[in-house]
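anyone seen this seq b4? input:
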Amino acid sequence: MKTASAAAAPADISPRLESRAVVVLTGLSYLFVGLGFSYLDRQFRSFGVESLLWLVWALLGFGAGALHVNKPGSNGQTLWIVLGTTGFVLALFPGFALYAFARWICLVLMVTMGARAAMLATQRDFYLTLTVIFSVSFMVATHSRADWSLWFYLGPAWVFGGLALAWQHAAGTRLPRWTRLSMTLGFIGVSFAVTALLFLFMPRPATLGFGFLPPGTDTPGMFPQAAGDGGPQPVQASGGTSGGQASGTTGLGGNGPAPQGSWMQQWGSMLGGMRSTLTDPFIPQWQRGLIKSLLDGAQGLLDSLAGGSAQPSDGAEGEGAGSQSSLETYTIIIHWLRWLLFLLAAYFLWRRRYRIGLGLALGGSWLLARRFPAQSMRLSAQAMGWCLHAHGHKRQAGQSVREHWGAAATAPLARRWMGQALEIYGETRFGGVAASPQRARNMRKATQGACDIIMGLAPELAR
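predicted toks r here
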């Protein structure tokens, strides 16, 4: 019997996933990588059909995995067998006939992990799935047909992958979902800003390029190398762009480098190279419109920084038309920034609604204590309820105030002050003791002390 137990013990050494959101975020990352994989073949006019197939495959695999993640006695082994067999057949034909060997291997990995996602219930399977997702995304990013527009698919894929990792890392902590989401998105935003600054201002050797960074990875950033110091210099192009090369740089100089333009000319060249993507007739219409809007906004911002003196990139319009377009673009940017600030303010107020309400209630309790002590005590009780609700101690249906406050797991000193506030409140409301200014102030002080400990404002007292 001991031998059988010892042999069966290592079968489940990997901890199980605790959150269904981890599986959902991983599935979204998987889906966007699949879309990027098919985006490379958009010239064959099959991007829409392939995108639908990736969506169905991700829903079947990761949808089943999300249903089984919190059920120890349930697994998706039957669906895994069915999807795995179907995927194996599709990978052999027509997959092997359609793709080169490297892309065919990536296709097999993606199809297999999508089918295996029906049994995605342990941390080991989760990390293996993310490894496959990021490996295939790097292959897609370095493909010969990849350009900067691929960020519309790889960008969300990496964001959702980072969110899945953060969600799994914080699975055992008592953080609200919105706190986890905002902190993770904030970290991703800071990382993106640092990366963008490095891209714009630091030299970028050609050997470190991925093949789709505009305006090309042979430009030395915002700090061009001085002529005559022995290093290679980019040569100013005399014409437009062709293929993946951006306007303004064509390679390394031979008999003497031409002087490099100002940083605004470099930005103009970069935007011109990015605008050449609009000539691709196979880009989806929604993506084409979004690219055009983004580039028009960036060009308008560049013209505004140049004081209206920068000419349009195609040279067809005059200076007055360029200034008018710049003013309109600047107005649109200001309009959207106002909406963004409004949404951020609304989100901040919504996230802090209980804390703001707590402060207003305690402030109102202090003001009403002298003239209206009964109303002051009601506000203190309401503030205590909001404080407990904001920290995961919600009041259940039919639960009294005493039961609600007594069921909260708090520090000993906070429980003592809550007990004092509860006794004062109960004696006045149910015991027939008249409300007085002194009792109202005492209840407010006890409520304030308990709330400060529960909210973490006095960590030295939470012991």
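Residues 417 and 449 are 7 Å apart (CA to CA). Residues 1-12, 205-261, 308-319 have pLDDT under 50 and may be disordered. kinda curious what u guys think
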